[in-house]
Amino acid sequence: MAKISVVFYPNDAKKSKQTNRTPLYLRIRKNREKCEVRLDWDLSPQDRKLWNETFQRVELKDSKTNAYLDRIEEKFNELKILHAYELDELDIHNLKHILSGQSSNNATTPSVLEYAHDYYQKNVKESNQLRIGTKKNYMKAIHHLEHFCEKTKRSKMKVTRLNFSFVQEFANYLMSDYDVINKKAMTEASACGNIKKFRTIFKQAIIEKYIDENPFNLVTLSYQTPRKPKLSLTQVHKFFDYQKLPPMYRINAQIFLFMSLTGIAYLDCMSLTLSNLEYTKKGLKLTYNRIKTGHTSSQFLTAKAYELLDDFDKLPDVQNSPFLVPQRCNQFLNRSLKAIGKRYGIPFPLTSHHGRHTFRSLLDEADVVDPTVISKLMGWSTGNSMDATYRDVTDRRLIKTKKQLDDFINLTFLNDEY
Predict the structure, then answer these.
(1) Whether the predicted pLDDT of 150 surpasses 70
(2) With contact defined as beta carbons under 8 Å apart, do 324 and 318 qualify?
């Protein structure tokens, strides 16, 4: 949490020559930043004499000055207790306006769009905690808001006028077609993803006293993403016969099979180099950091996955590059997989992402049930679970998992009787 302090003091340099009264100032320090603001209060000559520098109060019972400063301090303590995270993110000058009660006038109050863009610049774009994909998703959400405001002629609407009606209209806009900009309707889950971004953005607007409540919290949309179709074991089995495919499809089928046996996502797969492999007496260990999340995935490769890597290594375009897997554009790979899927009688458009889903299904089929092991294989975050804190995923546990997968693959896909 950021170190924040507030200090009240009489500024004698600003003492009025006409009234002989001394104005009170508020000084705020946050980390290495400092700002000051003149409060709407001043001290009479008598109060100035009774001012206690240590307690920052007037030594006078029932002092109205003290009551005024107490209200400001109570406001600050409330922010620290109830909104600690938001207080960390809050700009020091906005905090100054909140505590002093001197909110900017309507001419300088930002519009809804200006506020969203300003939040992005200060809290998203420069953040070291957010991944590139998350930052892009914030920007996409703001672009949707821009198009909506332009369509409804609300581009200059002040953030203080943000209400449920506006947000409900925006949610409906996200889930509707709009031919003028060639916009297609989103699913409810996708619209919810955008709404969640604005819940975070305008949460700060409450702290800054622009709005009393966040209307984006009042919109109820389903988080549940429609379940994608999965490959059956029979359909997965067909990919083991990739040698029967025409040459133009064969390598792409091998890439998909490698992804299905490792759970590696497309971008991570295309980025693999020798530095991701470790040759040990126990087997070939694959370790990489997921590009999307930064989480680490580790596993010992099954015999079939090892064989596929060996096949790739014999290809000229792999031998002449630093990568372990033949490089394919995702669009080209997906087009090829759709064609392969039709040949195999798969009743839905096959994509590279189905490989990751397939691997997760194979883990269940092979009776791999340890959640911390599964998270390590998939490159998922383990969050703050107690298992993740006290149980390391050792090589011994990964080798046990490899054996379970090898046994299942041999029995199910490489057995002629299957």
Answers:
(1) yes
(2) yes
Same domain, 243 and 353: yes
> In this structure, what are the phi and psi dihedrals at residue 330, rounded to the nearest 5 degrees?
-60, -40
What pTM, to 2 d.p., does this model score? 0.58
Domain stops at, among 52, 68, 100: 100
Site of tokens 């490959």:
231
| pLDDT averaged over every residue in the chain | 87
What is d(CA 144, CA 139) in angstroms, rounded to the nearest whole number?
A: 9
Instruction: Select from 411, 398, 207 the least CA-distant residue to 304.
Output: 411
Give the tens place of pLDDT for each residue, 232-250. Answer: 999 999 999 999 999 889 9
Residue range(s) defining the domain that contains residue 144: 112-218
Which amino acid makes up residue 37? Answer: V
Q: How many domains does the chain have?
A: 3
